[in-house]
Design brief:
The complex is a heterodimer of chains A (452) and B (361).
Chain A lengths: L17 H14 L9 E5 L2 E8 H12 L3 H13 L3 E3 L14 E4 L14 H13 L9 H8 L3 H17 L2 H18 L8 H10 L5 H15 L14 H4 L3 H5 L9 H7 L3 H6 L1 H14 L3 H14 L5 H13 L11 H10 L9 H21 L1 H9 L10 H9 L7 H19 L4 H11 L1
Antiparallel strand pairs in A: 1-2, 2-4, 3-4
Helix pairs in contact in A: 2-3, 4-5, 4-6, 15-16, 15-18
Chain B lengths: L6 H4 L5 H26 L4 H4 L13 E6 L5 E6 L5 E6 L3 E6 L4 E7 L7 E4 L5 E5 L4 E6 L13 E5 L4 E6 L5 E6 L3 E6 L5 E6 L5 E6 L7 E6 L4 E5 L5 E5 L6 E6 L5 E6 L4 E5 L4 E6 L8 E6 L5 E6 L4 E5 L5 E5 L6 E6 L6 E5 L3 E5 L1
Antiparallel strand pairs in B: 1-28, 2-3, 3-4, 4-5, 6-7, 7-8, 8-9, 10-11, 11-12, 12-13, 14-15, 15-16, 16-17, 18-19, 19-20, 20-21, 22-23, 23-24, 24-25, 26-27, 27-28
Classes of the chains: A mainly alpha (452), B mainly beta (361).
Keywords (chain A): Signal transduction inhibitor
InterPro entries (chain A): DEP_dom, G-protein_gamma-like_dom, GGL_sf, RGS, RGS6/7/9/11, RGS6/7/9/11_DHEX_sf, RGS_DHEX, RGS_sf
GO molecular function (chain A): GTPase activator activity
């Protein structure tokens, strides 16, 4: 890409942003004013005390007040100060954001400000790496081997400099040393974030232990996939009745819409390829639900759907969703109680005390595997599936003359707008949820009692 | 990760040179052990397995639509799940939503920055996301009212410290995954703009990403200027697999439809296929006559064909199994910058620096 050719591969060019960074710095100086700036406190770290610590919410309030903006904007501005390295977090130092709570931060020393003309040099990084090693922070070890290669000729010089800096560091007072270490580490976190969590040796160890499969097996699986889907690939086999882009006729799309009464034969065949395919096609999922209703075992799929809603939903809705899921599927005596093994149930219920996006992962995987290994195959052999297979449409291929094709090109159908389809879908979902919701008798009763 | 040093630990004397050498040898040993393990399982090549597979017939693919309307280089495009609408973004800051079937422009937004390098259509079809040199990813809810000013409802979601190179919605409209020139990828909550997870590990700009099409949907792959393609776990932020065989920047990564492999396209003029279960590169798609870099790759529905958009204005179609080039397509008058196959596989769309988009089938 052209825009990158003038820039080196690593370390960002600061020049184009100097103008706006200088503006930031004048604000930062105001923030640090002892009288009118953000109020600072001391923070105890083991037996040392770190001075001039600020809280996220105080900082955001200061910014909001100073710049006359909303809290949202102030928080975004604060996050930029952290991302560019002017302020660093003391606690979750790998996440470069400003949180609007009591999280603690410090101002970065101007020595490390991005506007300082020096570009972080590899040999400085080498010294830093050695220093950190000397104080037993092993997450930096990842870079030794790479660095050694690059800096071979400077290595002795680096070791000498590192030894000197280390000695000088030892002579500083303990609180100063801890503060300086924090500042330096914060600087490198912004300018060259380390490989997350593990050093490269640990990464290699994990890679060695990771289960790998013989090439013949995995490549065989790739070939099998292609063979299975060969006839369903519109660019390899003809799609019936015709490819809309080639004939300007959109029958193929109309016949395969979300809520058709009768699906096509190809579509029904695709449902049999895997449970994932069946569930991904909402029309297929509907058919599966009909089968499950007959078997009175719809709660597994309902739980799976609810877990998906939780995983992909907004952060703010998570705790309410988690609570509803617990009450409906997991609580003892729940109306749609799912039958999972004791260990998974125990872990899930415990996790729900502090719900997060992936709290239902174990339970969801368990339920999915149950459906995949048992229910899915019974569905394929069931009268429900055989019935839909029989009813499925097999459209005749279009046979347009050149005159027909010209006509088609002039009359391209606009179809239904996706926003309208989405609204219809949401209405149907709401109706279905209302119809199947278990009536909370106790709540209803107490509601009636309160009205009296 | 270890906790910060206590003052006691800070006073320990460690013989520097000894530990350095130890780590170095440990790293070398581990690397060769990993290669050994991989070699044990390397019992067959892809083209050998492909010998039993039928060859492909003659290929006739033509431009079926040409979409004109952008005033400058088209940089990115994405399909809507309705299989006919697309969103495209260009260097002049314009983002256009088209019904590619009728070639009607449905919406146009002007971004406050130039070089809108990333755009994505929301799974519901009700919004689009885009960003570029503004270092942000913004979401615009779409409307049925053609006269409505979409910029008024714009929502700023992601913020990076360098340009946004790619963005993608996850399985819902509520989360966006982004990659940036600042070397990181990040997952965001759309409603609150909150950073949910950030992914560190690339040593240079990250140029592309793709979400895995799996039952769990918890991983994605990214490619960068450091020549690496990394596979990430969205839950923990960890890099779980890494591949470094390209000789230059990786401009595009795309999962194989089963999710067990992915393809990459690079400035080194090759496309490569990586098998995730065997943990290695299994194919290189290249020709002596192809010298210019690949900007964008995508698979056909079955995974048999790999389409590559190149900087020499052409599109090369590869037989994924046999490794041969099936077809070369001409039409664009400048480099092909973006290429995506439609959700139902009936066509693919290319965007180019010649200001147009083309639909091929």
């Amino acid at each position: 890409m052209t825009i990158r050719t003038a820039r080196p591969n690593r370390a960002q060019h600061f020049q184009p942003r100097l103008y706006c960074l200088k503006k930031l710095e004048s604000i930062l100086l105001e923030m640090q004013d002892t009288k009118s700036g953000v109020k600072g406190t001391e923070q105890k770290l083991n037996i040392t005390t770190i001075p001039h610590v600020i809280a996220g919410n105080d900082t955001i309030a200061w910014i909001s007040n100073k710049m006359k903006t909303t809290t949202e904007e102030a928080q975004a501005f604060g996050t930029m100060l952290v991302a560019y390295g002017y302020i660093y977090p003391l606690q979750n130092h790998k996440k470069l954001v400003m949180c609007n709570d009591s999280s603690l931060y410090r101002f970065q020393t101007p020595y490390f400000w991005p506007t300082q003309k020096w570009v972080p040099d590899d040999s400085d990084y080498g010294i830093f790496t050695l220093l950190l090693h000397a104080v037993c922070l092993c997450f930096k070890q990842a870079h030794y081997n790479h660095l050694h290669e690059w800096l071979n000729h400077k290595w002795d010089f680096i070791v000498m400099q590192a030894a000197e800096q280390y000695k000088a560091g030892k002579e500083r007072k303990k609180p100063d040393r801890v503060v300086f270490d924090c500042q330096e580490r914060a600087y490198w976190m912004v300018n060259r974030p380390p490989v997350s969590l593990s050093n490269s040796n640990m990464f290699y160890q994990q890679a060695i232990m990771r289960s790998k499969v013989k090439s013949s097996v995995s490549l065989g699986a790739l070939v099998k996939y292609i063979t299975t889907y060969k006839n369903h690939d519109p660019l390899l086999a003809s799609c019936l009745p015709s490819n809309p882009w080639q004939t300007d006729h959109d029958a193929y799309w109309t016949l395969n819409m979300r809520r058709v009464e009768v699906p096509t034969k190809m579509r029904v065949e695709r449902w049999s390829f895997s449970l994932f395919e069946l569930l991904s096609d909402l029309r297929g999922r509907d058919d599966f639900k009909i089968f499950l209703k007959k078997e009175f075992s719809g709660e597994n799929l309902a739980f799976w759907e609810a877990a998906e809603e939780l995983k992909w939903g907004t952060s703010s809705s998570m705790s309410t969703k988690a609570e509803t899921i617990f009450k409906t599927f997991l609580a003892p005596g729940a109306p749609r109680w799912i039958n999972i093994d004791g260990r998974t149930m125990g872990l899930t219920v415990k996790g729900l005390e502090h719900p997060h996006r992936y709290v239902l992962e174990a339970a969801q995987t368990h339920v999915f595997l149950l459906m995949k290994k048992d229910t899915f195959f019974r569905y394929l052999k069931s009268p429900t599936y055989k019935d839909i297979q029989k009813k499925a449409l097999n459209p005749e291929p279009h046979n347009f003359s050149p005159a027909n094709l010209e006509q088609n090109a002039l009359n391209r159908s606009p179809g239904i707008h996706p926003i309208i389809l989405w609204q219809q879908e949401e209405e149907e979902k709401a109706k279905a949820a209302a119809a199947s919701a278990p009536v909370d008798v106790k709540a209803m009763m107490s509601k009636i009692d309160r009205k009296k | 990760m270890r906790s910060p040093p206590t003052p006691e630990m800070a006073t320990q004397e460690v013989p520097l040179n000894e530990t350095l050498a130890h780590l170095k040898t440990e790293s070398e040993t581990l690397k060769s052990k990993l290669e050994e393990e991989r070699a044990k399982l390397h019992d067959v090549e892809l083209h050998q397995v492909a010998e039993k597979v039928e060859g492909l017939g003659q290929f006739v693919m033509k431009t079926r639509r040409t979409l004109k309307g952008h005033g400058n280089k088209v940089l990115c495009m994405d399909w809507c799940k309705d299989k006919r609408r697309i969103v495209s973004s260009s260097q002049d800051g314009k983002v256009i939503v088209w019904d590619a079937f009728t070639t009607n422009k449905e919406h146009a937004v002007t971004m406050p920055c130039t070089w809108v390098m990333a755009c994505a259509y929301a799974p519901s079809g009700c919004a689009v996301a885009c960003g570029g040199l503004d270092n942000k990813c913004s979401v615009y809810p779409l409307s049925l009212d053609k006269n409505e000013n979409l910029a008024a409802k714009k929502k700023s979601v992601a913020m990076h410290t360098n340009y946004l190179s790619a963005c993608s919605f996850t399985n819902s409209d509520m989360q966006i995954l982004t990659s940036s020139g600042d070397g990181t990828c990040a997952l965001w909550d759309v409603e609150s703009g909150q950073l949910l997870q950030s992914f560190h590990g690339h040593a240079a700009d990250v140029l592309c990403l793709d979400l895995a099409p799996s039952e769990t949907g918890n991983t994605f792959v990214s490619g960068g200027c450091d020549k690496k393609a990394n596979v990430w776990d969205m839950r923990s932020g960890q890099c779980i697999q890494s591949f470094e065989t390209h000789e230059s920047d990786i401009n595009s990564v795309r999962y194989y439809p089963s999710g067990d492999a992915f393809a990459s396209g690079s400035d080194d003029a090759t496309c490569r296929l990586y098998d995730l279960r065997a943990d290695r590169e299994v194919a290189i798609y290249s020709k002596d006559s192809i010298i210019f870099g690949v900007s964008s790759v995508d698979f056909s529905l079955s995974g048999r064909l790999l389409f590559g958009g190149y900087n020499d204005y052409t599109i090369n179609v590869w037989d994924v199994l046999k490794g041969t080039r099936v077809s070369i397509l001409f039409g664009h008058e400048n480099r092909v910058s973006t290429l995506r196959v439609s959700p139902d596989g009936t066509a693919f769309c290319t965007g180019s620096w010649d200001h147009t988009l083309r639909i091929w089938a």
